[in-house]
Amino acid sequence: MDGINIKIRLETLTHHKRTEKWGKAEPYLWTIFFKMDGSCIDITPQFKIDGNATFHFTEGSHGNLGISSRQESNQVPIPSAVGEWETYLDPVRIPYFEQDAAGIAGVIVVLMEKNNVSYEGAEAGHHALNEKVEVAVNQTLKEFDPKIVDIENAMPSIRKFFEDKVEIVTDSLQDDIVNAIKSKQKLLQNIWTLLKPDNLIGYRVWNFSQADIMESDHQSIDFSHLWASESHGDWEIFGNVSAIEDNFE
Fold first, then answer.
1. What is the end-to-end Cα distance of the chain in Å, rounded?
2. Packing angle between helix 173-184 and helix 187-195, nearest 10 degrees?
3. What are the residue boundaries of the structural domains of the chain, listed by start?
4. Which residue of 54, 89, 120, 245 has the fewest C-beta atoms within 10 A of its own C-beta?
């Protein structure tokens, strides 16, 4: 199996309806791109995983979508600095069987809405998210149980294990983010924040194997997700992952 250059692109964010009669929605995104492939992990002869996942963390919180507010049904283009990653996916060699397993890449998206949290507080929450995800994912790789591997489909077995663990990690994110924000802000800021904290609208994890991409139409996959909420309105994000011909350094 050959390696491939890919681009993951979060393209647009749409606010389909407003829930507040007064005030304006001010969304921002935290994004974490990741990959597990032959460049960063190995499958040992004991069928354990050796190595760590590769991460690409994007910067910024309040205002990182390049807008201050949106009205009903507006569509926001997501800046490339927040929503784009280009990388190379290498297959992972399976010991004894002289075959390769497809590398995996993906993105974790957290959609927030600005209220009374300071920019410094929001960034502290952002970095707490990055650190927790990186530590938890790499710890998960070390805990991988080789007995669950289907030898005929090694990478799908690893992928399913990884997806389940990421879901467990993300379910506990909110407390870590709140604690990081409070530790960064002063007392009066924390009191102000408690009156109306920034809203966690939702999160979503996508992952794709190089086999998924190469076998798709035009070597490209569109993806999207709708967060429907009575309290925050309906938000929908759209993206794409595709093989590209450019070489990366």
1. 21
2. 140
3. 4-244
4. 245
Residue 144 to residue 137: CA distance in whole angstroms: 11
What is the distance between the alpha carbons of residues 231 and 239, in angstroms, rounded to a whole number? 25
Mean pLDDT throughout 181-190? 50
Q: Can you point out the beta strands (E) in 90-175?
A: 92-94, 99-101, 104-113
Of 159 and 95, more confident: 95
pTM of the model: 0.83
Structure tokens at 241: 């992952």
Question: Residue type at 192?
Answer: W
> Rounded to 5, what percent of the chain is helix, strand, coil?
35, 35, 30
Confidence of residue 176 (pLDDT cuts 50, 70, 90): low
Instruction: Give the tens place of pLDDT for each residue, 74-123.
Output: 788 999 999 999 999 999 888 877 778 888 999 989 888 887 677 777 88
Q: State the pLDDT at residue 247.
A: 43
**What is the DSSP code (8-state) at residue 40?**
T
Helix (H, G, I), strand (E, B) or coil at 214: helix
Measured distance CA(47)–CA(79) in Å, rounded: 40
- The answer to whether the CB of 181 falls within 8 A of the CB of 124 is yes
